[in-house]
Amino acid sequence: MLLLMATSISALCTPHAVQGKVLYEDGTPAMGAEVTVTHVKTGATVEGTVEWDGGWYAVDLGNLWGSCFSRGDLIEVTATNGKYSGSTTFTVSETHGYNIPDTIYLSRHKKQKIKTNGNPRKNI
User: Phi-psi region for residue 43, left (φ > 0), alpha (ψ -120 to 50) or beta?
Assistant: First the structure.
């Protein structure tokens, strides 16, 4: 039984904080924005919410569902709040500690026009 417990503990990912800011284009904090942190190589994600003063969020890469990370892995951070979205990427700098990615500035989704049989149609 002790061996089984040691095996399951060693399978856990190393804690690694990702802390960043999410702001609207005018610089106001995007309080309540949903943040998704994605391990690009595996597609594993961990989610958080902007809830600290100044537009800060924090998540732990050690909580990536179904995957662990390594130094040098590419991570994408996407934030959305209603009709606004933005993203940034960073490379894990170390296997213990934390990363502070670039500030994400949210901009309004742009409607795209596509043509169907020569008639423009709005894509919602």
Answer: left
